[in-house]
Amino acid sequence: MSIKVTLLGSAVSHWGEDPWARGSWSLIGRHGSPQDRIALGMPVHDRLRIAGEATHPTRAGMTHGAFEQGRAAAAWAIERGHTEIVVVGAGMAGLGAARLLDDHWLEVEIWEARDRIGGRTAGVEVAGGAFDLGANWLQQYDENVLARLAERFGLRTVVTDFTDPMVLTGERFPGGIEDDVRKRLAAAAPDASIADVLDDWLREPAPWSAAEIHRFVDAEIVMDTGAPLSWLSARHGFEPGVGEGDRWIAGGYRLLTEHLAKGLRIRLDRRVDRILVADDGILVIKDDPVLGESSKRADAVIVTAPVPVLAAGAIAFDPPLPEPHRAALSRLGAGRVEKVVLRFAERFWPEHGYYRVHGPADTCISEWLDATAADGTPTLVGLFAGDWLDTLWTGTDEQIAARATEIFRNAVPAPR
Ligand SMILES: Cc1cc2nc3c(=O)[nH]c(=O)nc-3n(C[C@H](O)[C@H](O)[C@H](O)COP(=O)(O)OP(=O)(O)OC[C@H]3O[C@@H](n4cnc5c(N)ncnc54)[C@H](O)[C@@H]3O)c2cc1C
């Protein structure tokens, strides 16, 4: 008997095409190392600093890492004696920076390209509930500064056990394989990619089978990065973070960002095109062919635009960024993980919390959060990476949501 489902509403992300993200989170390419993250975050002379998740040496790709880096950049500006600061970007790093500067009674203005705050935390309303199309979890919960804020604001959080997903199709990979993978990646040559290590290993995969190794790599590395394995650094491309006490926020990240933004001066729809440094200050400029240029002078600027946005030259720096910063940008990058939120009239899947679906092709992988606990309406949040994105993320959002629903429905065991 096939399962009947009634979709009440859906939402679909497009991080890969988003001009202000150009991908999901930062990653280290085969010629890079965590040193590139540190180099990118070093002050540029006395007036400019790049912050954002990509500059955190150990908590990159996560909201609390971004927030910490924003605050570190703000502390630098305060220490340098700057009193008027522009922050570029109203994501977690920008909000963290501006909050601290504002708490010190300094003049701070955020210029944000989008018409909303939050950056890669992106709240969305679906069928009367609030969910996330960007960041979902507070990772590394016990040591997460944003988790402490969520507690202070009285937000409800729900635990996800990433170490024990229900595998709906395909087989689980064996428990001990992760240690072996990590050991092999750590022992790789400095410029080796993850694909290089796999090619070698698969010639003699024992004690595992080739299929088991592939299953681990697809489920953990492809899903955690969304990047080609031939580009990712073997030593540094598979960074930790997931599976360390993660909890999602019922009602979404928006509840945090709205608190953080309270009272701040935020100019939305203010894309920064150019940043000019002079002896007596720094100018941020938006060029507009119709309205002309708008600009603001400041003592210092903190830039939180994502790595691929900076690497694409979306902001022109005059003088250009120093060589170590440009080299770091060329060695870092971002992958693509997309999400879909699906709300149903009835639950048609077994209760567990987190699910993994392999197939139909080996490299097609999706993971699913049961977000019903948000408000009681049966809700799934699907995460897609790898080869799925080529076939699934085409057509309208409704078509994508319908296809995603089919993938999950087909994976759920039929009722007897
Ligand atoms: C699908 C997905 C799932 C994720 N899941 C998690 C998770 O579960 N847990 C977790 O911790 N992290 C997760 N992340 C990562 C997390 O969202 C990011 O690491 C974090 O939000 C980055 O914050 P940021 O401030 O560094 O950058 P952003 O949030 O990208 O903020 C930068 C801001 O700068 C703006 N901007 C860019 N260019 C310009 C310009 N020229 N002028 C003005 N403004 C500009 C952008 O619009 C943006 O608002 C996820 C990300 C994605 C995409």
TrEMBL record:
Q: Which SUPFAM superfamilies match?
A: FAD/NAD(P)-binding domain
The record, for InterPro entries, names:
Amino_oxidase, FAD/NAD-bd_sf, Flavin_monoamine_oxidase
**Designated name of the protein:** Amine oxidase domain-containing protein
What the entry lists under Pfam families is as follows: Amino_oxidase
User: What organism does the record attribute this protein to?
Assistant: Actinoplanes cyaneus
Q: Which GO terms describe its molecular function?
A: oxidoreductase activity
Amine oxidase domain residues are: 11-75, 92-182, 243-413
